[in-house]
């Protein structure tokens, strides 16, 4: 069973959180509420999130300060942040949002369909990355067992390699289709760049898997997937 992605919704107004939940419920993912920047940072200590929707104007720690904390943490710095704001002070204000690490900056009232589409892109990229990490873990297990005796264990290893290759091929196909869709639809540059980064990691993983095939004579370590 595929685990659902978590989406963090940060806003100090309950009615805004309720509206976001109504818009994003169709994605069938896990929606997590936070009513302040401090509460959001607590949630990020224990859970992994596909994307964060962050209100700019909040009492106490505002969206910019919250984003700065998120980007300083190694665990959370790569999580995409979409800023939501009811105010618009011009290009300088928008630039501050991107400088704080946002992948997008949306003014209220926003189009629900557009917001849902943007969020779905980052959820899909997150799921692909999760699949990629799973393949990498299986490969490392295979490498650690590479010095075992032949016979039944060798047959088991060959079966594992075949399964890994098939699963990786499926992820490669999905990633290629996603990249094509993003390019065709001229989606946000950040999403396109993230998809390209995912494909590069897939290429490295494929090379490592090919090196494990019988007759290659290579059992070098799996390339880093960071």
From TrEMBL:
<keyword id="KW-0175">Coiled coil</keyword>
<dbReference type="InterPro" id="IPR001789">
    <property type="entry name" value="Sig_transdc_resp-reg_receiver"/>
</dbReference>
<feature type="coiled-coil region">
    <location>
        <begin position="154"/>
        <end position="188"/>
    </location>
</feature>
<dbReference type="InterPro" id="IPR050595">
    <property type="entry name" value="Bact_response_regulator"/>
</dbReference>
<dbReference type="InterPro" id="IPR011006">
    <property type="entry name" value="CheY-like_superfamily"/>
</dbReference>
<keyword id="KW-0597">Phosphoprotein</keyword>
<protein>
    <submittedName>
        <fullName>Response regulator</fullName>
    </submittedName>
</protein>
<dbReference type="Pfam" id="PF00072">
    <property type="entry name" value="Response_reg"/>
</dbReference>
<feature type="domain" description="Response regulatory">
    <location>
        <begin position="6"/>
        <end position="123"/>
    </location>
</feature>
<feature type="modified residue" description="4-aspartylphosphate">
    <location>
        <position position="55"/>
    </location>
</feature>
